[in-house]
Amino acid sequence: MPLPKPPSKPATLLKQIPKITSRAAAVPIEARDERAMEAAPSAAATAHLALVETRARNGRKAKSAGPARLFVLDTNVLMHDPTSLFRFEEHDVFLPMMTLEELDGHKKGMSEVARNARQVSRSLDALIAACRNPIEDGIPLAGLGNAEAAGRLYFQTTAVNGPLPSTLPAGKADNQILGVVRALQDLHPGRDVVLVSKDINMRVKARALGLPTEDYTSDKVLEDTDVLYTGSLALPASFWDRHGKGMESWQHSGFTYYRVTGPQVGDMLVNQFVYLDNDTPFLAQVKEIHARTAVLRVLRDYLHAKNAVWGITARNREQCFALNLLMDPECDFVTLIGQAGTGKTLLALAAGLAQTLDTKRYSEIIVTRATVPVGEDIGFLPGTEEEKMAPWMGALEDNLEVLTRGDDAAGEWGRAATIDLLRSRIRIKSMNFMRGRTFLSKYLIIDECQNLTPKQIKTLITRAGPGTKVVCLGNIAQIDTPYLTEGSSGLTFVVDRFKGWQHSGHVTLQRGERSRLADHAADVL
User: Fold this and answer.
1) Torsion-angle region of 453 (φ positive above 0: left; ψ -120 to 50: alpha; else: beta)
2) Chosen CATH of 305-524 out of 1.20.1250.20, 2.70.98.10, 3.40.50.2000, 3.40.50.300
3) pTM of the shown model
4) Residues 487, 151: Cα–Cα separation, whole Å
5) Which residues of the chain have pLDDT under 50?
């Protein structure tokens, strides 16, 4: 990418920059050596005050008084989220020259990082083209229709270098960016100059040098995954005493319904499960909510053998919740989260086979997953698409064995024939070839979703056509993708965004059922 053109006029001298005006006491800017000239925010932008006290897109509270903050972006922020330029609301954004150089070095290739780098370059080019003022005065970030981005974008247009320890190599890109942050602090002591980086070591070095720094958290759904939506809600022990006498109930299509009114309805969401643990357990699902009134539907009891799904019965309450969602034709999108051995894949596969081979609701099952290795990459794999994906689908093969193991009367040959029949109705697809496809009347299982970014999982979910059900499985405690955390994982993202939609549901599976060894290991290791 070509470097930005030199400014049309000399950079403003430090002594010419007006004092920062705000409701707080103004701090005069001391005159400095002319060699420290830098294309920093000009007079109009220096007096750019925070608009209102609102939540900035970087997860921080904006000041209600005083100048807007100046965020210096590291390259990895732009490559992580190409729209990050527009996520800081009324605050200003500064791009060092080294950030542009690193972007240019990553723009080639077909990887997600390369695509993001090219998207950032196009956004910068469009912003510059739409700006009529000199570039050193700052470019309005709202120029491309991003109304929430009320700040300005500044480029480093002259050489600048703040004082850093002599032990830091001057030629390293990270250290040059740190030097720019230091210089901006010296130039504008009345403003908060903050480095934003996804690089932990970069943030550690910045803090060691006394520079304010933050992680980029705009794409984080939650700061604490302990408050992630679980899909279930415990009813108070006095529930029947309060509502039992005047509660309206009726039967419809083989289900029992109850109408509940009261303050506890405010905590409920559509398709959320509610339960009561006492001598007579009560398991139900919220189907409608109107103001302070909710309609509950009693669940089908998949804990009982008579309601087994492809020979599988639920072993605990949460598995019963999951099977009710998986077998519900009105539920188009299901997410299941749970630690190792909680039965996510087995339940999803059993429900898919029952609805594909028995009820013919779906034409076939499609299984895909994120191909992120736990250890070192083993290199290229030979064969067709399905043969390349086969080593990643060990969990699928293991669960097929479980689902056919109960047919002892058929013998070994019969079990082998059954497995071959099941495989004929299951398609294994790579995520790399999903873009542009549309699945009609398919049962799509996406495994290991915790390793997907929000953009990747959006690409997969939007493949669903009429009559297709999408099931996302994962364990947010087992993320193997670099730069992804529990808060920024695509799985966390969709659980939070889809909660309360009438055609989706979520369950967090609590108890491991694989074996006592696996259950204990998941707890103590």
Assistant:
1) beta
2) 3.40.50.300
3) 0.73
4) 27
5) 1-64, 374-378
